[in-house]
Write a structure and sequence with these properties.
Strand content: 25-35%
CATH class of the largest domain: Alpha Beta
CATH architecture of the largest domain: 2-Layer Sandwich
Helix content: 25-40%
Number of helices: 7
Oligomer: single chain
CATH superfamily of the largest domain: ATPase, nucleotide binding domain
Largest sheet: 5 strands, mixed
Length: 232
Amino acid sequence: MNIIALDTVAGASSVAVFSGGKKVYNYRKVLDRGHAEVLIPMMKEAISSVSFEFLDLELIAVTVGPGSFTGIRVGLATARSLSVAAKVPVIGVTSFEAVAASITEKEWAGVPVLIALETRRDDFYLQMFNEARARLGEPKAVGSLDIVSYVSDQLGLQTDILVAGDGAERAVSEIGGRSERFKCRLAASLAGPDAIQVAEIAQESHLSGYACLPAEPFYLRAPHVQVPIKSG
């Protein structure tokens, strides 16, 4: 199966291509803004670097959030346009799923995982997974004052946690500063989502018949929009 995956929801833009069950292309560019300007050239480079044509694509996957509101919209609009042009389905993958998929079995073994995504505010986007990689509870936007309560509600009596995501270091600092109960360990990679994991999840979900998410934005809070005040 020929798959192209896109991610633009956080501090990077990335494109990955899978063909025949294997990764054949992956490129990630770190940037805070300007996703729209770099994504199309990145996709053109990806297609020109592989052994099949654009119309040979069979599936498109895109990260749907949570993350930057502008980044989410850029990725979704591009993926939908590709879907129409190539006449193939497009599916969504959450930022939490993508980050979780980057953690190796050895690193995950025996502990629950907290995915902490940066919001660049006082809060976090949080989602917990158990030792078997199953989701625990619902993902939430959680303020620093409430992060210990969120973790406690999901874990019960457990104390050891592996923390991953681009907000992991700040989350561990907040948890450690507010409670001595939890023993937090940082994951080897503290990056946000990457298209390579988006492609892997899309391939597995599509081929196994699992229900796939639609390519719709996944927000955990409303956009922060400041309305200008009219003078006079």
